[in-house]
Design brief:
Layout lengths: L3 H19 L16 H4 L3 H8 L7 H4 L7 H11 L9 H11 L7 E3 L10 H4 L4 H16 L1 E4 L1 H5 L13 E2 L12 H11 L3 H18 L19 H12 L2 H21 L1 E6 L6 E6 L13 H7 L5 H17 L22 E2 L1 H21 L2 H22 E2 L4 E2 L2 E2 L4 E2 L9 H4 L8 H14 L24 E3 H12 L4 H25 L5 E3 L6 E2 L12 H14 L6 H7 L13 H20 L1
Antiparallel strand pairs: 1-2, 2-3, 4-5, 6-9, 7-8, 9-10, 11-12, 12-13
Helix pairs in contact: 8-22, 10-11, 10-12, 10-22, 11-12, 11-13, 12-13, 13-16, 16-17, 19-24, 20-21, 21-22
The structure holds 2-acetamido-2-deoxy-beta-D-glucopyranose (9 copies).
The site of one 2-acetamido-2-deoxy-beta-D-glucopyranose has 4 residues, from strand 4.
Length: 611
């Protein structure tokens, strides 16, 4: 039978589960009077419910993006008069007419703009050797002008008529139904802007996000009031870091540094949980981060899906379901088998029970960046504080997420006390953020081995989001996403191991060629791609149609071409020109060889040092 330690472990988890199930959730809206004057139009209330109940729009986001013609109070007074509170609303045409009179079309409050620092021939892109890839990169560079938006100051002064949150500077939107700024998208958009030499647009985008932290205490998921209870992966510090490294603009960095600290404190105060381990993997209590919004109502921009999916649940189950859905949206991975208790069913979502390795690696990166930036400003106290914080946090990362048997980091599930040992590419985020003992190369190599064995690198279009192919969700197989492929590529490229670097190149090549082929066929860039088959296609699945545009996709391609433009070529040239760059690293090279190479390298280096 089980050892006493295991029994104690099981006992505590049952206790915790009982406690969590019995904890009553109250109704918390996605925005309210504390942060918006039109919450009863866009975040809750009868009008929102009726518009969705009668399915006035296929996409629920349409209605909550529509500006008001009159004030919220006038609007709701007219609505109550026309549709009395005690009568069910069943007349679709009537409600449609009401919207026609009291609302304006979505998107009409955003203005197009031309970035002032845009140039037709950015040096990093004109340096790309393959003429077709170069022409394509310059075409993508042109798309920044289509995706540039700014907000009229009238909206700042009259904000109660808009769900849009006013930001002072121009910015790049993802595209399609994503008409406003998005938080984590901005990191990869900025990587692309920097490849396009657009440092002042980069600074503008950072300034807007900084403004959000100053006003709301954190960066909301996106630029609408209905996002005011949830954030997205914390990459603002990463953006400031990239900008600072490129420009060495110390004045700007010093100006925004207190805001980065404020954002860090938000995550620490509002998104941590203490995990006590008694499984021999670390044996202690660790403070770690999770995605967990307080809201317990349907997401207004996905109201119909959320309410339909929760149809057969009782009220408490519904609140918990809505909270877990919005928390998954906070993770950026909406939705994925990663968050489902049975890895299959959306209704079994349990995001707040899952401690994500990517978020924790991002927080570790925040600590590292804050340490570095404070050091740059000469603030030793803060710098030392973050140095220590990161050193002890790395122990938590090791204890909670690392699995020595598998040789990889995984999400930790608090309900089961187990890690999710399936392959998901976010397991490479510790490599991307350098969040492990860098001298311990063995760890990076074993992760590489795990990913190789799992089949992560065996698809022609790039790295898939998971190997779970029966959920129909967009963050699962067979979709590949730019941010994930980028982090895997960069994680491998920044390692000191030649085989990992070669694999980084090969994924970059696949991702670039896949995107290129779809672009050649459709003239569009997409938010995600199907990685099966040699001619990839736009991705599918999830709760809305695949979107064109597309901010982070373009950003990743431009960044990868800026990195690899000297040796990446379109296929009919690839075989002859890039082969010499990869001696002995045919696709068959196994990670065991990586180990061998590494050991030999170390031996050789020690030999040099001893001498
Ligand atoms: C709501 O409007 C009032 C009056 O214009 C203003 O004082 C208040 O700050 C606004 N509240 C929010 C959360 O914007
Ligand atoms: C709108 O209505 C609410 C509740 O009836 C009231 O408290 C508030 O003062 C009104 N706002 C304006 C700007 O008239
Ligand atoms: C939703 O619409 C149906 C008709 O399609 C109506 O019978 C029902 O009362 C409505 N429910 C609410 C809450 O308005
Ligand atoms: C790139 O941007 C910098 C400012 O950040 C500017 O000084 C430089 O002239 C730009 N390069 C080109 C080719 O326009
Ligand atoms: C975690 O434990 C520490 C130390 O006991 C405590 O200060 C902190 O408030 C706890 N955090 C949470 C989220 O419970
Ligand atoms: C974990 O802690 C228990 C006491 O709480 C101790 O008996 C055990 O040896 C520890 N295990 C490890 C691996 O540190
Ligand atoms: C680590 O992986 C092994 C092998 O798959 C598994 O048995 C074990 O439960 C994992 N550890 C945790 C804490 O989940
Ligand atoms: C997908 O589903 C099929 C049929 O169930 C299965 O054979 C296959 O291994 C699954 N996984 C992947 C990654 O294709
Ligand atoms: C490579 O492909 C291009 C475009 O498809 C074609 O024009 C060219 O002839 C090809 N070159 C070789 C060497 O096959």
């Amino acid at each position: 039978m089980c050892s006493p330690r295991v029994l104690i472990f099981i006992f505590f988890h049952i206790l915790a589960a009982v406690f969590l199930i019995s904890a009553d959730l109250s109704e918390v809206h996605v925005c309210d009077a504390s942060n918006s004057n039109n919450s009863y139009i866009y975040c809750s209330g009868r009008l929102l419910a009726a518009v969705n109940n009668l399915s006035l729009f296929e996409d629920s986001k349409e209605f909550v993006d529509m500006p008001l013609v009159y004030s919220p109070n006038e609007t709701i007074a007219a609505f109550d008069q026309q549709f009395p509170p005690n009568e069910p609303i069943t007349d679709k045409a009537n409600l449609q007419m009401f919207l026609g009179k009291y609302f304006r079309p979505p998107g009409s409050e955003l203005q197009n703009c031309t970035p002032t620092d845009w140039i037709p021939n950015p040096p990093k892109l004109t340096a790309i050797v393959d003429p077709d890839l170069r022409a394509w990169a310059l075409e993508l560079n042109g798309i920044w002008k289509d995706l540039c938006r700014q907000i009229d100051t009238r909206i700042r002064d009259d904000h109660e008529k808009y769900s849009l949150i006013y930001v002072p500077e121009p910015f790049i939107v993802p595209g399609g139904r994503f008409r406003e700024f998005y938080y984590w998208d901005a990191y990869w958009i900025i990587k692309g802007l920097l490849a396009s030499n657009m440092t002042s647009t980069t600074r503008s985008m950072i300034t807007n996000l900084v403004d959000m932290v100053d006003r709301f205490g954190f960066v909301p998921n996106g630029g609408r009031v209905y996002y005011l209870q949830r954030s997205q992966p914390p990459l603002l510090a990463g953006m400031v870091y990239e900008y600072y490294e490129k420009t060495k603009d110390k004045d700007f960095m010093i100006k925004v540094l207190p805001t980065l600290l404020k954002e860090f404190n938000f995550w620490h105060a509002s998104r941590t949980v203490n995990v006590t381990l008694a499984n021999g993997n670390g044996n202690g209590t660790y403070t770690v981060y999770r995605y967990a919004t307080p809201s317990t109502v349907p997401r207004p921009e996905a109201y119909q899906q959320d309410t339909q999916n929760a149809q057969s649940m009782d009220e408490q189950q519904q609140r918990s379901f809505y909270q877990n859905m919005a928390s998954a949206a906070e993770s950026g991975w909406d939705f994925s088998s990663r968050w489902f208790a049975d890895k299959l069913t959306l209704q079994k979502i349990e995001t707040t029970q899952i401690i994500p390795i990517d978020l924790n690696a991002f927080m570790c990166w925040n600590m590292d960046i804050l340490q570095y930036l404070f050091e740059q400003t000469g603030d030793r106290d803060h710098s030392d504080k973050f140095l220590q914080l990161r050193a002890s946090f790395r122990l938590a990362l090791n204890a909670v997420f690392y699995n020595a048997t598998k040789g990889a980091w995984f999400d930790f599930n608090m309900r089961t006390g187990m890690q999710n040992v399936e392959f998901y590419p976010h397991m490479a985020v510790p490599l991307f953020t350098g969040c492990y003992q860098l001298l311990n190369q063995w760890k990076a190599i074993r992760l590489f081995q795990y990913m190789t064995d799992a089949g992560a690198f065996s698809y022609p279009g790039g790295v898939p989001t998971s190997l779970v192919n029966n959920t129909g969700e967009q963050w699962d197989f067979p979709n590949g996403w730019s941010p994930l492929n980028h982090m895997v590529i960069e994680g491998l490229r920044k390692s000191s191991n030649p085989d990992m670097q070669d694999q980084a190149f090969r994924i970059a090549e696949k991702w670039i060629l896949g995107n290129y082929r779809v672009f050649a066929a459709t003239k569009h860039m997409y938010e995600k791609y199907n990685v099966i088959g040699t001619v990839p296609e736009p991705g599918a699945g999830g709760e809305y149609e695949v979107q064109e545009g597309f901010g982070w996709t373009n950003g990743v391609i431009l960044d990868l071409l800026a990195t690899y433009g000297d040796r990446i070529r379109l296929p009919n040239a690839t075989t002859t020109t890039t082969a010499p760059n990869q001696p002995g690293s045919a696709a068959t090279t196994r990670p065991i060889c990586a180990l061998l190479v590494f050991s030999v390298t170390i031996l050789f280096r020690s030999y040099l040092f001893i001498r």
